[in-house]
Design a protein that fits this description.
The complex is a heterodimer of chains A (191) and B (564). By secondary structure, chain A is mainly α. Helix content of chain A is 66%, strand content 0%. By secondary structure, chain B is α+β, with helices and mostly antiparallel strands. Chain B folds into two domains: 134 residues, Penicillin-binding protein 2a (Domain 2); 333 residues, Beta-lactamase. Chain B contains 18 helices and 22 strands. In chain B, strand 21 and strand 22 form a beta hairpin. The chains are: A mainly alpha (191), B alpha+beta (564). At the A-B interface, helix 2 of A face strand 3 and helix 9 of B.
Chain lengths: 191, 564
């Protein structure tokens, strides 16, 4: 025979009643319940705050140091550029002064005065013209003239040699006169 | 008691809040404005060079010395020190330092060496600003051409004024923090704009030729105890001016001491009655018109009467029959009037207008004037009795030089100018247009006649060994200031010519104002022309004429001559 049938009545599950409980009450209860755990969590919080403060401090310090470094570098560069500017101005002033000096030395009236007083030169009494053959091209060796029949007289050959000697003498004299009149400064700007 | 302390603290605290928070921005702004100053950074003025690269006007660094009167403790002693170093009047300096202001100029454009000596003394209340000083290294060479600049480096006369925009550049600005003495605080610069320096210019002037022109003119004016004079040397083909001189001169380095007469450029700004030099234009006109040829003969009585006015010769003679060439070579007034009558008033005026005598030349120089030649409708009955030989009409030396250049330049009027190039402006192209005055053939024919003036006529003192010279003398009575008649015994003597005649490259005009002792252009001015021409062709390396000009032969055209 079997056991009598049993009806299992599952009781309806009731919804649990939940209520929101204030934390402090819990903490209080917790403290009162566990003071050690409460102080540990408090310390952890403060440690976090301190770490955050440190990090921010380090960041601001870094920014501040960088800013000061940049500012001091900018000031140093500014001073350097000022010094360079002054050096450039000085160099330009020296250049201008030299240019003026050269121009003053090369003033025709001064040259005339030096020529007459120191070199005892006088204006030419008259002017005549001598035709002189132009110089050979620069760098090119002088071309040897082809042999010609000896139709020219010796006086013509002497005349041609005399003209080239005259041009050499005139060129050398002009160079000497320039040195005496202008000096080294004048030669530097001579054309 | 406690309440009182609290009240006091409250008041102080409230004031602190007001100063630090409420009005702080306004005070900070005031302090910033006080510290920050806009300081102009002067631009360097461009240099003026002659055609061979010689500097004629240069700007060099200098300093402006200023004072802050309130900061100067011992004004008398400071003034003495400054006066000793800078060479100023101590009383004047002390007067400036005693002014009731925060800023006073003591000296401007002080040479750098002297400013540095003063700076080294570290005088309280004395500051220094960057400045520049214009220097003319060659003194009075080309002084009237160059002009000068004022204390603020602005051109006031001459080329300095004409090309002031090009030479000036643009000043920069420095916004800097400065202490009460005006010294910049390092690192306190807010912003700066660099100055744009002025550009250099190169003139057509040749310093050596210019100096020679001034020297020769000075000698001639002194020799003939003249009132003044002028010389123009130019290239008749291109219009480039090699030299332009006027007497008396001045030193542009101290222009404040110059007289008004010395500063004036007479070649450009003085009109005068040219006299017989105009006969070259009258002859060119009748030839171009086809009325006469060089060999055309005219019967010339000793004198003419035109509208009641008696026209005679400088050297009385009998009745002659002269060719057109002889009329010019002998500088016959009667002959010139007959030539003018052949052209008639309108024809003469038209040709003189074509030669540019009724307009300015347009030269790049300030203050140019034009002469006086009214339209024929305004001529009197006596005009035809004197205009053909250069009286009753006035021109500037530059106008006449340009007109004669047309004869030298195949009939083309050049454009006289000073500017040769602007080295830093390579994109600027300079063009100087020409205008046709007469035909090239007429110009050649007239040149041959003018050569005869030098070989056989009144201009024989203008000869230049080795060169064919063409030119014309002039001896004109000087008009009275009010224009009513002529001053007795006062003349303007002149010679204008060009060489080499077969390929003209140099034109020279010499004018002596009121010479005494000798009055004829052929005596006073022609020798000056000869000397200057000799120097100029030698300096410019212009070769001598290959063939000498004969009396009746026409001038052989040069290989580079342009066709009509």
């Amino acid at each position: 025979m079997g056991l009598p049938a049993l009806r299992h009545d599952t009781p309806r599950r009731e919804r649990p009643q939940l209520t929101l409980v204030d934390g402090r009450q819990v903490g209080d209860r917790g403290r009162s319940a566990s003071p050690k755990a409460a102080s540990q969590s408090h310390s952890a919080r403060w440690r976090g705050v301190f770490r955050t403060f440190l990090a921010v401090s380090v960041l601001f310090s870094g920014l501040g140091i960088a800013r000061v470094a940049l500012a001091s570098r900018a000031a140093a560069v500014s001073i350097e550029s000022g010094m360079l500017r002054e050096q450039l101005k000085e160099a330009r002033f020296v250049g201008d002064s030299l240019e003026i000096k050269v121009s003053q030395l090369a003033t025709p009236s001064r040259i005339r005065s030096v020529a007459t007083s120191k070199m005892k030169m006088t204006p030419a009494a008259g002017v005549s013209y001598v035709t002189i053959d132009g110089p050979a091209k620069h760098g090119a060796p002088p071309k040897p003239e082809p042999a010609k029949p000896r139709a020219a007289t010796s006086s013509t050959a002497r005349g041609a040699a005399g003209e080239s000697l005259l041009s050499s003498v005139m060129y050398a004299a002009a160079g000497e006169a320039q040195i005496l009149l202008l000096g080294d400064v004048g030669l530097a700007s001579s054309r | 008691m406690l309440g009182g302390v609290l009240l006091a603290l409250l008041i102080v605290g409230g004031r602190l809040v007001q100063l630090q928070v409420v009005v702080a921005p306004a005070y900070a702004e005031k302090a910033r404005i006080q510290r920050l100053r806009d300081v102009e950074i002067p631009a360097r003025r461009g240099t003026i060079y002659d055609r061979e690269g010689e500097p004629l006007a240069v700007s060099v660094d200098a300093k402006t010395v200023y004072g802050t009167p309130g900061a100067v403790k011992d004004k008398a002693q400071t003034a003495k020190t400054i006066a000793r170093v800078l060479g100023l009047d101590a009383a004047d300096v002390e007067r400036r330092l005693s002014r009731k202001s925060n800023f006073t100029y003591i000296a401007r454009k002080v040479p750098l060496e002297r400013a540095r000596q003063l700076e080294a003394l570290e005088l309280g209340g004395i500051g220094f600003l960057d400045d520049s000083r214009r220097t003319y290294p060659s003194g009075d060479v080309a002084c009237q051409v160059l002009g000068f600049v004022g204390v603020d480096d602005k051109g006031l006369a001459g080329i300095e004024k004409q090309y002031d925009d090009t030479l000036s550049g643009e000043a920069g600005v420095l916004l800097a923090e400065r202490d009460p003495y005006g010294r910049p605080i390092p690192g306190g610069v807010a912003r700066s704009t660099e100055p744009l320096n002025g550009k250099d210019i190169v003139l057509t002037i040749d310093k050596d030729i210019q100096d020679r022109a001034q020297d020769e003119l000075t000698k001639a004016v002194k020799q003939y105890k003249a009132r003044g004079g002028s010389v123009l040397i130019m290239n008749p083909r291109t219009g480039e001016i090699y030299a332009m001189a006027s007497m008396p001169t001045f030193n542009p380095n101290s222009y404040a001491k110059a007289s008004a007469g010395a500063v004036r450029n007479r070649v450009v700004s003085d009109a005068y009655e040219p006299g017989s030099t105009i006969k070259s234009l009258t002859a060119a006109s009748v030839i171009d018109k086809g009325v006469y040829k060089p060999q055309s003969k005219l019967k010339l009585p000793p004198s003419l009467t035109v509208a009641g006015k008696h026209v005679g010769e400088a050297h009385p003679r009998g009745t002659v029959t002269w060719t057109l060439t002889e009329i010019v070579t002998h500088s016959s007034n009667v002959g010139a009037v007959k030539l003018g009558q052949a052209l008639k008033a309108q024809g003469l005026y038209t040709y003189f207008k074509r030669f540019g005598l009724t307009e300015k030349t347009g030269i790049d120089f300030p203050g140019e004037v034009t002469g006086w030649l009214p339209a024929p409708k305004n001529w009197s009955s006596l005009s035809m009795a004197n205009i053909p030989f250069g009286q009753g009409v006035s021109v500037t030396p530059l106008q006449l030089g340009r007109a004669i250049s047309a004869i030298a330049n195949h009939g083309l009027l050049p454009a006289p100018h000073f500017l040769l190039s602007m080295p830093q402006s390579t994109d600027v192209k300079l063009t100087w247009p020409t205008e046709r005055a007469i035909s090239a053939k007429s110009a050649r024919t007239t040149t041959a006649i003018l050569c005869d003036v030098v070989t056989d006529g009144t201009g024989s003192a203008a000869k230049v060994p080795g060169y064919n010279v063409a030119g014309k003398t002039g001896t004109a009575q000087k008009a009275l200031e009010d224009g009513r008649g002529y001053a007795g015994g006062k003349y303007v003597s002149s010679f204008i010519g060009f060489l080499p005649a077969e390929d003209p490259q140099v034109l020279i005009s010499v004018i002596i104002d009121e010479p005494t002792g000798a009055i004829y252009g052929g005596v006073t001015s022609a020798p000056v022309f000869s000397s200057l021409a000799q120097f100029t062709v030698s300096h410019l390396r212009i070769p001598p004429s290959p063939t000498r000009q004969s009396r009746d032969a026409s001038v052989t055209p040069a290989a580079t001559e342009r066709k009509d």
